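worker-03 picked up job from queue 'complexes'. Input manifest follows; two sequence lines, order preserved.
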Amino acid sequence: MSVVRRFNVKSLTRVEGEGSLRVRVVDGVVEIAEFSIYEPPRFFERLVRGREVREVPDIVARICGICPVAYQVTACEALEKALGIPVTADIRRLRRLLYCGEWIQSHALHVHLLHAPDFLGAESGFTLAATHPDLVNRGLRLKSVGTRIMEVIGGRAVHPINVTVGGFYRSPAVTDIQGLVPDLEWGLAASLEMIAEVSRFDFPGTPHEYDCVSLRSATGYPLDDGRIVSSRGLDIDVADYERHFAERQVPWSTALHSLTVPDEQPYLVGPLARVNLCHDRLSPLARRAAESCGLELPLRLSAQSIVARAIEIAAAFEEALVIARGAVAEIAVCRVDYEPRAGAGCHATEAPRGLLYHRYEIGDDGLIAHAAIVPPTSQNQAQIEADLRAMLPAALALEDAAATHACERLIRDYDPCISCATHFLTLDVDRKRS
Amino acid sequence: MILTMSKPRLAVFKFASCDGCQLQLLEAEDRLLEIAEKVEIDHFLEARSRVVPGPYDVGLVEGSITTGEDAERIREIRRQCRFLVTIGACATAGGIQALRNWGRVDDFVSSVYATPAFIDTLATSTSIADHVPVDFELRGCPIDRGQMIDLITSLVLGRKPRVPGHSVCVECKASGTVCVAVAKGIACLGPVTQAGCGGICPAHERECFGCFGPSESPNLVSLTGFYEQRGTPRDALVRLVRSFNGDAPAFRAESDRLEAKPT
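worker-03 finished. Artifact:
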């Protein structure tokens, strides 16, 4: 005779998207830990078929309101490869500046309003505002500087309208870029302080030997370009991505799971992976702050992702500042013209939540014939499940509310953007005794 | 419908969407904490763990209806909310994912998923108003932060929200933007699209692509006829009208008409 105990958590909060967790425990052994994303599928890869090349950046931006630039820039670069368009260094620099803005606003939101409440015993950024007003106000101001960068370069923060295949529709006003400098100087100083602050939080959990995966380039911190590297020594061109990583569909989730090929193992993408693999590529001040924060690299606890995000906010400010100070004249050519033609191309960039891969085929009619998009959250999903399976035996010894809270915290460490993949945790634990 | 309430209880709900419209609420950085003092935010999963059960005074709904379960959930939310507001193109017109309404949904599912049987999805992506009565619509892909703050302020003060029904053309004229349709020969949806964005696309030397949906009494037939005569291919016009608000009735009627029209 078996004894079944079940409890439900109706919602995973403070993440972007909707998801649930189903756990089955038989005689104290966790048999199933399924992190399910039930965000209704929107079929973007199919939606872009039959559309013009120039429409793609606007359409794929709508995959995620938090990181539209990641989708736009990745699509532009992949399509530029397909069309054989050489993009100028000026355009790349502006894209990096825009991308820095997105990292700052996305990370600042997660660090201060979504994640910090877990470390400081608050249920939300709103209640944290009462107990830690300086922290929350700083977070909101950091975020607003990121938003401002996106407005100056992209024309709008949520779903920028100035990004196109070949470059930008209009050259951003040089006075507007220069106007960012004072805020960027403040942001850099504030984010360096933030690294020291969040490094002193208590980090729960047991250390993992993650297989970290990120881009890595000859110079600079991974953002818009590079080879794909991993903790296990992988070092490949982006064109070989699909030979080394594969998406698997699982019945309990609308997000596909990515695993390594051929050994079908989970892997980790995102801020923790990037800092672990590329801390030597950080900008000088961010690197010094990372090295002196008192935590040993590589970071092995998912909760320490808050430190990785803080480091990356500083790095993004530092790079944005260099670009903004260097903007002395409007760029001569803001867009490289092209004729749509048949071709295929792929590209990967580092979205705030991790590696983002796009591949497109353009037909003879100049319209999109095929698209493949692998967002970071689907790549992390298998790793999240592996972490949950590892922590559940200890968590299940707790009462229901505390167990749920521990699971939710772990999932929030990953800043899962459930819209990309899917918002919400239903923890359904089936405790069975035979 | 106008409400007067000292501290309305606010709830935010999400259906199929990108989260961008909810983010506009979180984006209101300097105003966010101020707003949080004026309203009780009782249900906002993206922002807080505390969830207070309904009923609520105001429900803000993001996203479109794409599954059978969601079609049920919106009915329950309607029962829980005195005043229901849709925020954004997905909730108001089905969003970009409503492109499936012109195709076969099986083809969409199988193009993304190896085992389509696991996927629960309806053949269509439809607006909230297709399922329940809606009290007010905030347009946009994404919604405009200023309009969102004005809406919340209006609810607290008990006045009508100041949302214009005129077209983007008015915004371009007001901001002194040179008309891209006239000066550059670009097929622009500004003349038939509701204002709200500030005319940012023409200001960036590109076409308006209809983020805020159809304006009041839009004359699409005349506009597309003009562009076609001037040389824009008809299939490009179909794509232009059939995008983020493609399933809004006025836009849908026009793209269908263009497609059916003999050449």
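worker-03 released lock.
The CA atoms of residues 17 and 174 of chain B lie 32 Å apart.
Chain B has twelve helices and five strands.
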